Amino acid sequence: MKEKDSIGVAFLGLGRMGETHLRNVASLSRVKVIAVADSNPQAAERGKAMSGAEVALTDVEKAIEHPAVDAVVIVTPTDTHAGLIEAAAHAGKAVFSEKPIALDLAETTRIVNTVRERKIPVQLGFMRRYDPGYARAKEKIVDGELGRIELFRALSRDTYPPKLEFLLGSGGIFLDLAVHDLDLARFLVGEVEEVHAWGGVLFDEKFSKAHDIDTAVTMLRFVNGALGVLETARHSNWGYDIRTEVAGAVGKVVVEAPQKTPILFAKDFGSRFDHFENFPDRFEAAYRLEMESFFSALLEGRPVSPGPEDALETLRLALAVRKSWQENRPVRISEIGV
Amino acid sequence: MKEKDSIGVAFLGLGRMGETHLRNVASLSRVKVIAVADSNPQAAERGKAMSGAEVALTDVEKAIEHPAVDAVVIVTPTDTHAGLIEAAAHAGKAVFSEKPIALDLAETTRIVNTVRERKIPVQLGFMRRYDPGYARAKEKIVDGELGRIELFRALSRDTYPPKLEFLLGSGGIFLDLAVHDLDLARFLVGEVEEVHAWGGVLFDEKFSKAHDIDTAVTMLRFVNGALGVLETARHSNWGYDIRTEVAGAVGKVVVEAPQKTPILFAKDFGSRFDHFENFPDRFEAAYRLEMESFFSALLEGRPVSPGPEDALETLRLALAVRKSWQENRPVRISEIGV
Amino acid sequence: MKEKDSIGVAFLGLGRMGETHLRNVASLSRVKVIAVADSNPQAAERGKAMSGAEVALTDVEKAIEHPAVDAVVIVTPTDTHAGLIEAAAHAGKAVFSEKPIALDLAETTRIVNTVRERKIPVQLGFMRRYDPGYARAKEKIVDGELGRIELFRALSRDTYPPKLEFLLGSGGIFLDLAVHDLDLARFLVGEVEEVHAWGGVLFDEKFSKAHDIDTAVTMLRFVNGALGVLETARHSNWGYDIRTEVAGAVGKVVVEAPQKTPILFAKDFGSRFDHFENFPDRFEAAYRLEMESFFSALLEGRPVSPGPEDALETLRLALAVRKSWQENRPVRISEIGV
Amino acid sequence: MKEKDSIGVAFLGLGRMGETHLRNVASLSRVKVIAVADSNPQAAERGKAMSGAEVALTDVEKAIEHPAVDAVVIVTPTDTHAGLIEAAAHAGKAVFSEKPIALDLAETTRIVNTVRERKIPVQLGFMRRYDPGYARAKEKIVDGELGRIELFRALSRDTYPPKLEFLLGSGGIFLDLAVHDLDLARFLVGEVEEVHAWGGVLFDEKFSKAHDIDTAVTMLRFVNGALGVLETARHSNWGYDIRTEVAGAVGKVVVEAPQKTPILFAKDFGSRFDHFENFPDRFEAAYRLEMESFFSALLEGRPVSPGPEDALETLRLALAVRKSWQENRPVRISEIGV
Question: If exposure means fewest CB atoms within 10 Å of the residue's CB, which of B218, C209, D238, D262 is most exposed?
Fold first, then answer.
């Protein structure tokens, strides 16, 4: 790739997450939002006003094809990602897409191949990799400051359980929520060889209706011999709770964001601090930084990351975990094929 | 004031702090940077590229007078603030200015009067009031959660000592650095009646050359009976160190930002976390939020804060502290007049 | 049981752990160390000097039978516990014994029955139950402050790997180290129904020689539906690392002891605090409090806890985890019988 | 001094603090409590039972003179300390005494001289010097890890205000409470040259009746050029609040004990941890360690510390601070003479 002076963007999808991303894109220099598109015309108009885009459209394909558009940002519903990435690839436009590419391996593989053939830069929204805590953990691991990795632990608790409607198309707790921890496992420790997951419905029968679970634990055996555990839950009365530990022969990193606000309040023989409410506040910097990284890579002609191959491997891992839960047995990743 | 649809901005001063502010202004919706101005033409051009401004100027007065400009943001050297606020006031433009208005009481009073007569919205850059920690502390105090305030403590340590050239025009440690803690004292506890300060040159003889000091302690006696202490120092080998405590009959708040990054690193029988390096990272959110607040107040026709009267009172307090140090005796604020 | 005025003690075993316990016993009022015994006569004499005991013996049986002895404290090697508890039971003396009773179920069951028949008060040294953190967690759970328990997580890292000689008689990582977390799981959440463990030798081939592992992860499925994970490791370059989390529908407790010493040291853009080195400093209070509780229960005629039935159930659970690792499959606790 | 095999102790004063000290003394090996004495015979008997002493007396002089007594521990009311230290000195017995020796300089000087002439080992109960946090801070300072000291800050808040009766004989807030911070200032930074204190009655008019104050701030100027501040208050709704910071050119130590118990409780979008209630729990280790240090020094023939000269200098400093408050002006320590 070669360097560019500026980048024209088609921004697709103006839901709540879309607005967050759009605000971040609009604040980047040398990046110009050309077109915003959403099937809801009011949402599209709101996006136009927020970003100063030239056009607001309800037809996302048209936005992709706009001649001033170099890159497409996809924040539409999950089941449209694959088609839009494909359309962008055929139009020769770079892509930032929210994860996942798709919920099944065949379609994801097809997109990976398409993108690879056409040499299109595609970055997926595994934003935790850009959180300053996780990024620093990765640096330390790469620099050998932890020594050989021995143990990985990840806890993810959503604050609010999703609606049944969302659940039905989500792929379930492992593809929708644990997938972030599985991506971190690969990012921080390496590829996984075998998994075993147990789960249950502990607080909300809605999950049963969706053939899903609200609480799960998973064991991971990494190719390099390290071992790991995941805890995954779909609600939290104390805020968005994301904790990750990587322990090695020499050192350990604990990535946690204890205090949302830099204040302690003391009263009645104790002190209290406040937690993050949900992903938009906990990962505010990560959302900003992944977008900055995507566009600065495009501007400077560097490769983007994490790309479709990463998304594919993380999906394969999540599918193995889901299969393990469904079949109530340990599953090797090598079992998961197209 | 009435509501507006959008605001045109003249942005004055493109030093390092200026760029931070410009990035924040440029990312606001319904705010359009019309003109950027800096005596250094390259800096002005860089600002134009960053913000998409229409014009880059070296003549700041011309930028103020641009017909599409509704508001002026002033991030120029301290000794130009008063003149530029005055020019903006005469041109009928709203103003956000870095603090201080001026380093002496007479000129500051003159500007306060001008602004008041012309009913111009003017906000000064005491950004700590917009830090989520200090803002939350203020809420708790206002809500009575601390009870009657008894003790105030503020520590401010700059990371790097300023250059001699800067020191000579800075007004000294109390007007340049302690002034932030003095503003917090007024913001969180109330007006001060009497002060006493001691200081010394403990680590850098450069401060002696500037008839200044690098380390100081100050006692405050508030009108409401509360007592306070300040510690102020011009260097820190462990990062930007800002700590504030307000204790009352019922509760206490401690505003501190312990960890820059959400990661702990354990090794050799201990854990380590990293500190903020300096004001741009410690107060990143505060700089963003003060600007958001200024422009959303203008757009919605609400008053801006903190205004020139606050800046005047805080200056008076800082002058009292400096006088106390210079004359080596307690000084009542009422001694400080034009 | 009826109340007593004072208690005479036979103290058996004067290794390092023995000295810690002896110091705690010797400082209790209304408790008098009558006899100390260790196969090493120097150790016995040292114990006599420390405690003011009347006699120092190398014959532990003689110490138990001393007519002034009401209670026996057993801190001898693991393979002697069962025999000594039995001897004390036959002599009608109360017992505090380090865990475990024995490493196999048959012998443990036999002792449990003997003790039950003879109505002897016996307390086992699962000291974590007496740590102020775990005790407070238990209170909160009992009081319903966490709501229905959903997830349990326990990490235990020893600081220094044991010697091969010790390993050979230890019962392995699950019976020797993870057993503390398994006891906590039962104490805090309830009985376990099924387990699955994976392990490996990651840092020290000595464990292979002992047919043991140095690193393990385990999943737990509790009878009440809650799920859990354990991480267990035999060395730590950053100190004794014990962390436990219990999350419920309403609240969560995290039991961790971050700082050994109440001091933070700031330097080079970061702060550092020191960790506990090993169990004697991390659980100093717990060792003291379990002994206080044992003797005050005897003095006041109250039952002691945790008793042999608890030790038996925790052993059964640990045996299930070990079997799961050995046979590389999930194991139900109901499979583990005499 | 020469080494000893064991030490016989007369223990004087069995109030609440006395019981804490007695428990610590009684648990030391090679230390035997011979006599306990308290004007209240029940208290004396309770002390005898706790410690296994040979005699319980109401006549403290008799206890000192007991031929088996080598050392005297004085935990009686403040106004008896000087007389009892003197009696012990004349009897040739070593002394551990709660601070202060006396509340006036003349009497303290007289005792210092007596003790010096008779070469009696005397240690005063400035227990904070033995707290693991303060001891570690001292080590780091001595080792040069902070570089040249620049700033000292100490906050001390009692939990519960004392009774009026106690206040009347206490010497006031500076001699009774701030004195601990003044001793730390000397211990950690060095001698003080000048002080200035302001105070007020902010929450309890009882202090006015005792011609005392409940809240104070103080500035310190050290001989070595460093500066300091104290905050001192007589009540706290959030527990015993003791914080100390020493900052130098290279590093900084913060001594604080944030959590009483190793548990965090998360609920309602925040976490809470509990504070120490008062000095007995916050300084539990310090009380134990100062006593261990006193007796092990006697047993090994080493000097004890802090001795009467330290107590005298700390008293002189506290008197200077009180005078500064009373006369509402800065006071040099050199003004304070017999």
Answer: C209
| Whole-number Cα distances in Å, D125 to C43, C127, D167 | 35, 33, 20
Chain A residues contacting D via beta carbons under 8 Å? 237-239, 241, 258, 266-275, 277
Q: Cβ contacts (< 8 Å) between D239 and chain A: which residues?
A: 266, 269-270
Quote the pLDDT of residue B249. 98
Contact A237 D273 (CB under 8 A): no
Contact list in A for residue B262 (CB cut-off 8 A) is 131-133, 255-258
Record: contact A270-D269, CB cut-off 8 A? no
Q: What's the length of chain C?
A: 338
Residues B256, A264: C-beta atoms closer than 8 Å: yes
- Which DSSP category does C333 fall into? G
CATH number of the domain at D7-120, out of 3.30.70.240, 3.40.50.720, 1.10.630.10, 3.40.920.10?
3.40.50.720
pTM for this predicted structure: 0.96
CATH code for the part of the protein at A129-283+314-335: 3.30.360.10
Q: CATH 3.40.50.720 in chain A, residues?
A: 7-120
Report how far residue D228's alpha carbon sits from residue B200's, in angstroms, rounded to the nearest whole number: 12
Using a CB-CB cut-off of 8 Å, the residues of chain A touching D233 are: none
CB burial of B124-134 (b: ≥16 within 10 Å; e: otherwise) equals bbbbbbbbbbb
**Which strands sit side by side in the sheet containing B7-12, from one edge to the other?**
B55-57, B31-37, B7-12, B71-74, B94-97, B122-124
Q: Do the Cβ atoms of A255 and B266 come within 8 Å?
A: no
pLDDT in tens, chain C (338 residues): 466 789 999 999 999 999 999 999 988 878 999 999 999 999 999 999 888 899 999 999 999 999 999 999 999 999 999 999 999 999 999 999 999 999 999 999 999 999 999 999 999 999 999 999 999 999 999 999 999 999 999 999 999 999 999 999 999 999 999 999 999 999 999 999 999 999 999 999 999 999 999 999 999 999 999 999 999 999 999 999 999 999 999 999 999 998 999 999 999 999 999 999 999 999 999 999 999 999 999 999 999 999 999 999 999 999 999 999 999 999 999 999 86
Q: In sequence order, which ranges of B169-237 are alpha helices (DSSP H)? A: 173, 179-188, 206-209
Q: Which ranges in chain A belong to alpha helices (H)?
A: 16-26, 41-51, 60-65, 81-90, 105-118, 132-142, 164-168, 173, 179-188, 206-209, 279-282, 284-300, 308-327
Min CA distance, A274 vs chain D (Å)? 4
Distance from CA of C249 to the nearest CA of A (A): 7
Chain D residues in contact with C155 (beta carbon < 8 A)? none
